[in-house]
Design a protein that fits this description.
It catalyses: ATP + H2O = ADP + phosphate + H(+). By secondary structure, the chain is α/β, with parallel strands linked by helices. It is built from 29 helices and 18 strands.
Length: 717
């Protein structure tokens, strides 16, 4: 046979519409058809010999009968894609078009749905909680442990016995560990089998969250309660109404307005010298948190610090410190972690940046301006009702950010369009029955590729699940245990936590209990107070390891038997971390003193930092190379996803910034190479003018030179 002729006819076979239609009828969609053909072509072209019947067909197709090759192609496709033999069954299992039917207990009763809609600080959750407290039984479902703990505390203080249930903790109101009629829990932990009089689902707009949205969908459709009180943004009203229409339940909407006025100021802060008591500077990265907090304390002011990876106890202590009128700490530096879960006495919110790194629905990393929903959630923390500040204010650190912030706040909040779904362990087990040789990661991939959802739903991002599934694939575990390990709540960017999960799984597979002594050896407990930022970050990771142990202890009690002891040392670790955070500026100085010359980045992050989309701040790639042009391109691409009518304006402004501030060939070259930012250039101009006025230009002391070099090193990205 002529190799060239065979290849030409194989490609002709691939392009035939009739063949593609036959493939689709046998379960080969366009992607699988393409992959199967590539494999089939490689098999034929690279085999030294083929079977006699295939050889005859190959000879025939050279005479024009290419369709006769299909049975051999399909046989090969089924060898590499075993699910083709049971495609009908798999499609039925992965059919996600009727999620309400997954909850027969909820469908057996007629539930009353009440939507409390309003902005932050409008009292919507307060009214829902009042009904929760007056009910004979109830469940509160919140997005954070802090929120669940707050309702748990509030209920018991009101003499309404209430249990606390989170992934890592069970606290009973009754001393004999009898279940109380009321429960406050994180939303993933709610029971869809227990009947309640009242259920409260907080922050319902998170039903669209790419990673966790499935938990709100499950609670909304599955909670077995006579009354479901849903709290959140008005943007979710239409979706909730449509979802409840499919269950035959009506939605009563109660609208609330903000209880205290919120004013967007006409001027930016521009300098940390202009800070006042009650100010909160909001940053979107740890590095900015560290930088801003150090600059504040350099001015003789004390500040509290709150960011996402801090333990809940430390966040509460920092919030308490900031709220205490007798404490000298009057300034707060925080990430958007303050958006929910903490009661703070804030007078003015100051956005240090309006650009935030995010993960989109496809699991891809993006850098974009904060959304209207995010801006309102954060800005709304100012002027909380009942605090010492009767009016809230919001502004930005930089003047040119203020215009864009006003545009964002004036835009309507985008309506929530779809609710998240996630495959259940039962569905994956049924898949595994049909595909016994497939890995868990492959099972999930196949499930998602075959799943069918209607327009009201989407399948949540499963990248974290697949990451853990691949990481522990080589460890012999039964499917249900493997699934549980892969749903463990951990940050996959923390190597120490991921390594610990791997060790947990390995020892679990050998049926060796994970004891307190083993965990102490692994974490090198007891631990000392941190001496620099790197040690503080490690302590935060160790705290996450203890959380992971406690989370697993409630799922495999016999294999993780020492939960009580671990909780005790976790509280001690929380205290150690609190000491570190209280001395954070000392840790920053210590970190920079041991850093290599010219190095200033304290904690590596996956996202580059930029003040606004108009900045030309450099973005470091994985190899440390920096390219201002790359950021400009990336920013332009991201800009198209937001308001297109603003893109030309922002691009023009960016070029104008370069022209006006990047004077001189050296400045331009430093900007292009990413060694200088607009912020640094403005500061240098200001310092030069001050020195010139004082007659000190060019005559700075050696100490001044060294200080300037350190400052440049600290800011360089």
């Amino acid at each position: 046979l002529s190799t060239g002729e065979v290849l030409k006819n194989l490609n002709k076979f691939y392009k035939r519409k009739e063949i593609q239609r036959l493939g689709a009828e046998n379960g080969l969609d366009a992607r699988l058809f393409h992959q199967a053909f590539i494999s089939f072509r490689k098999y034929i072209m690279e085999s030294s010999s083929v079977s006699a019947d295939l050889h005859i067909i190959l000879n025939d197709i050279c005479c024009g009968h290419v369709d006769d090759l299909f049975p051999f192609f399909l046989r090969h496709a089924k060898q590499i894609f075993p699910m083709l033999d049971c495609m009908d069954d798999l499609r039925k299992i992965s059919d996600l078009r009727l999620p309400p039917n997954w909850y027969p207990d909820a469908r057996a009763i007629q539930r009353k749905i009440i939507f409390h809609a309003g902005p932050t600080n409008s009292g919507k959750t307060y009214h829902a909680i009042q009904r929760f407290l007056s009910a004979k039984s109830g469940i509160y479902c919140g997005p954070l442990k802090l929120l669940a703990h707050e309702i748990f505390q509030k209920s018991n203080d009101a003499n309404v016995p209430c249990d606390l249930v989170t992934g890592e903790e069970r606290v009973y109101a009754n001393e004999d560990a009898r279940q109380a009629p009321h429960i406050a829990c994180t939303i993933e932990m709610c029971s869809t089998n227990t009947p309640y009089e009242v259920a409260v689902i907080d922050e319902i707009q998170m039903i669209r969250d790419p990673a966790r949205g499935w938990a709100w969908t499950r609670a909304l459709l599955g909670l077995c309660a006579e009354e479901i009180h849903v709290c959140g943004e008005a943007a979710a009203i239409d979706l909730v109404t449509e979802l409840m229409y499919t269950t035959g339940e009506e939605v009563e909407v109660r609208n609330y307005k903000r209880l205290t006025p919120l004013t967007v100021l006409d001027y930016a802060l521009e300098s940390l010298d202009n800070l006042r008591p009650g100010d909160c500077v909001v940053c979107f990265s740890k590095n900015d948190i560290y930088s801003v907090s150090r600059q504040i304390e350099a001015r003789g002011l004390e500040c509290a610090v709150i960011y996402g990876s801090l333990p809940p106890g430390t966040k509460l202590e920092q919030a308490k410190k900031f709220n205490d009128p007798d404490d000298p700490c009057k300034i707060l530096v925080a990430t958007d972690a303050i958006g929910m879960g903490l009661n703070l006495c804030i007078k003015r919110i100051i956005f240090n940046s309006i650009v935030k790194p995010t993960i989109n629905e496809k699991g891809e990393k993006e850098i974009d301006s904060i959304t209207t929903s995010q801006a309102l959630q954060i800005a709304g923390r100012a002027g909380r009702y009942g605090s010492s500040f009767k009016q809230g204010e919001v502004t930005t650190m930089h003047r040119d950010d203020l215009v864009q912030l006003k545009e964002i706040l004036n835009e309507p909040v985008r309506p929530v369009k779809a609710a998240g779904l996630h495959p259940t362990p039962e569905q994956i087990e049924m898949f595994a029955y049909h595909l016994p040789d497939a890995t868990l990661s492959n099972l999930i991939d196949i499930f998602v590729s075959l799943s069918q959802v209607d327009g009201l739903y989407f399948v949540c991002n499963i990248d974290d699940f697949k990451f853990l599934a691949d990481m522990i694939q080589h460890i012999p575990l039964n499917l249900r245990s493997r699934y549980v390990f892969c749903t463990a709540p951990l940050n996959r960017k923390e190597p120490f936590v991921c390594t610990t999960l791997l060790k947990f799984a390995r020892q679990f597979s050998r049926n060796e209990p994970l004891t307190f002594d083993w965990l102490c050896r692994h974490t090198k407990w007891p631990l000392a107070a941190p001496k620099n930022i790197k040690e503080l970050v490690h302590l935060e990771a160790v705290h996450d390891v203890f959380d992971l142990y406690l989370w697993l202890s409630y799922r495999f009690m016999d294999m993780f038997p020492d939960a009580v002891l671990v909780r005790d040392i976790q509280k001690k670790l929380d205290d150690i971390i609190q000491v570190g955070v209280c001395n954070i500026t000392k840790l920053i100085r210590a970190s920079q003193s041991v850093a290599a010359p010219g190095t200033a980045e304290i904690v590596s992050e996956d996202f580059p930092l930029s003040r606004t989309k108009r900045d030309t701040r450099a973005v470091s790639d994985r190899h440390g190379a920096k390219s201002t042009e790359a950021l400009s391109v990336a920013v332009d691409v991201l800009g198209e996803r937001r308001a297109k009518n603003l893109r030309a304006y922002r691009s023009a402004t960016r070029q104008e910034d370069l022209k006006s501030r990047g004077r001189g060939s050296l400045a331009n070259r430093l900007l292009r190479e990413g060694l200088l930012t607009q912020e640094m250039l403005r500061q240098l101009e200001s310092e030069w003018q001050d020195q010139h006025r004082n007659g000190r230009y060019g005559l700075g002391s050696k100490r001044d030179d060294q200080s300037s070099s350190k400052e440049m090193g600290k800011k360089k990205k």
